[in-house]
Design goal:
The chain is mostly beta strands. It has no helices and 40 strands.
Length: 543
């Protein structure tokens, strides 16, 4: 079972990153609408055009269809209309990536969001674009239901191996249709084995004659947006320091004021007190960046960080509309409006690995940075006074409701939930066979709440497949209350896969009310969180 972590609003950088715990950082997913970015004179950031997100989307997912879904089998990319899942609109044979121990990470996608700028509210709308690699070429499928969905080639690239697992560039548009992807390309002699490949960058708006970008103009740091998920410019780290490039990644806009001589830079989180401001770890200090349509300015150091830089999550935090919260070593800080950070708490034991939050409490994930899924601790801290209300050794926090923390027991054996006052610690009883958590579809700032747990009932023994019903239970709901999503088809007993481990670039976790895809064994199904009897098998007719 794969842990699930509540993502921050992240202005939704767009392409959803894969594997295990990345959603804590903000699984990516959106930005500007279909029209191309507006032009701007040199030295100015272009404000892209935008349009309202459409009401309905198709679904796409790659399924490994080898024997019992074993890694290394053939994969098929299904494109499905959730209103009529059988037959699938497309069933595209992606072949076999023999170089990958996990199956071919050769399909990926973006997400679309609707943004209420005044309320700082973001609402998940659906999958936007599916991208895949076949026969050395890169293709996309539009997933807006009102658009043609036949696969079309993206760029003139002819030696693509797979979508890269370290793809981190956010989308350009809020609707996710304009996005950059990193692609592994064949090395000498056409070698696609891991460690032998080169890289190229393709943009979903490229046609089949457009050349791919061979390299980035610097080390990518962040996307600077217009406050409505539309990227204005990319923040890059060049030899001379922090610089801005346009969304084409070809034209340099200018240097960041105060960013000269920077050697390392990493996004920490967001400042919702200003329309366009983020916090960064810059050369082991906390810094604050503000930007407008013409330029960006980096503050002097707000705080020296004592914990060695051990990875992308060591100072990542979350923000509400008043302040940003983050950790350094065993210390927990609060900072508002680019002012001096204030220490509000100290947690015992392992260092802070990441922080989740609710209106009233912080959920602190403590971990050995070298082995974050082992030896974890979960600590709940009151935002009002920094008081520790819950501390559980061997737990990995995976999210929260307004009043409860949800966590995984050691080695992911069980989902449990506990009230913020330490009472009512109980199993979610969703079963370990592929259990997942459902998020509320909307969030304000970084306040993303869990709604329910979904899994197999009766819960199978460890290592056994699901052979019963797929049920949804509210987190903190009445004992025994459940909503039956559907029954596992006879003879299809297998582990459930709500999140596909072969997808390379991850699909979003389920959101309340939004149709989603689920693999039972190697058979694909559509289901809708919160809708009883919604499980329906996807027909295999190829397209």
């Amino acid at each position: 079972m794969r842990p699930t972590i509540a993502p921050p609003i992240r202005r939704h950088p767009a392409v959803v990153l894969g594997l295990a715990l990345t959603l804590l950082l903000g699984a990516c997913g959106d930005r500007r609408a279909a029209p191309e970015a507006g032009s701007a004179p040199d030295g100015a950031l272009a404000s892209p055009a935008s349009s309202a997100a459409p009401a309905r989307y198709l679904l796409a997912r790659a399924v490994n269809e080898g024997a019992a879904g074993r890694p290394g089998g053939r994969s098929t990319l299904y494109v499905v209309d959730p209103a009529k899942p059988s037959p699938a609109l497309h069933a595209i044979d992606l072949g076999v990536d023999t170089a990958s121990p996990y199956g071919p990470p050769i399909a990926g996608g973006t997400q679309a969001y609707r943004m209420d700028r005044a309320a700082r509210r973001s609402t998940y709308a659906g999958q936007s674009v599916a991208l895949f690699v076949k026969d050395g070429k890169v293709f996309k499928v539009e997933l807006r239901a009102d658009l043609p969905h036949a696969p079309t080639q993206v760029s003139s690239l002819g030696n693509a191996c797979r979508l890269a697992r370290d793809m981190v560039i956010p989308t350009v548009s809020a609707d996710g249709r304009d996005a950059w992807f990193k692609v592994d390309t064949a090395g000498p002699g056409g070698n696609c084995a891991y460690g032998s490949t080169a890289a190229a960058y393709v943009r979903t708006t490229m046609d089949a004659g457009a050349p791919a970008l061979e390299q980035l103009p610097g080390e990518w740091v962040d996307a600077l947006d217009d406050g409505a998920h539309n990227t204005l410019a990319y923040l890059m780290l060049a030899p001379e320091g922090l610089v801005l490039y346009d969304v084409d990644l070809r034209r340099r806009i200018g240097a960041v004021q105060g960013g000269g001589g920077v050697r390392k830079a990493q996004l920490m989180g967001f400042d919702y007190s200003a329309p366009q401001a983020h916090y960064y770890r810059v050369d082991d200090t906390v810094r604050h960046l503000r930007w407008d349509a013409k330029a960006a300015t980096l503050s002097p150091s707000l705080l020296p960080l004592t914990r060695p830089d051990f990875g992308p999550r060591n100072v990542v935090g979350h923000a509400d509309l008043q302040a940003f919260y983050f950790g350094d070593g065993n210390r927990v800080f609060k900072v508002a409006g680019g002012g001096p950070p204030v220490q509000i708490a100290t947690v015992a034991g392992l260092p802070v690995y990441a922080i989740m939050m609710t209106d009233t409490h912080l959920v602190v994930w403590q971990a050995d940075p070298a082995r974050p899924t082992l030896g974890n601790s979960a600590t709940v801290v009151a935002k009002s006074d920094g008081r520790t209300t819950v501390s559980i050794e061997g737990a990995t926090p995976v999210g929260a409701t307004a009043t409860r923390m949800v966590y995984l027991t050691r080695r992911g054996a069980e989902h449990r939930t506990v009230a913020f006052d330490g009472q009512e610690d109980a199993a979610l009883a969703a079963g370990p066979a592929g259990a997942t958590l459902v998020f509320a579809p909307s969030r304000v700032a970084d306040l993303q709440y869990l709604e329910a747990a979904v899994g197999c009932a009766p819960a199978p023994a460890a290592g056994r497949p699901c052979e019963g019903r797929i049920v949804q239970r509210a987190i903190g709901g009445a004992e025994g209350s459940e909503l039956v999503i559907g029954a596992v088809p006879p003879g299809a007993a297998a582990r459930l896969q709500f999140v596909d481990p072969t997808f390379g670039v991850e699909l979003p976790l389920p959101y309340g009310g939004a149709p989603a895809l689920l693999t039972i064994g190697n058979t694909l199904h559509v289901w809708t969180p919160g809708q009883a009897g919604s499980l329906a098998q996807v027909g295999r007719t190829p397209g």
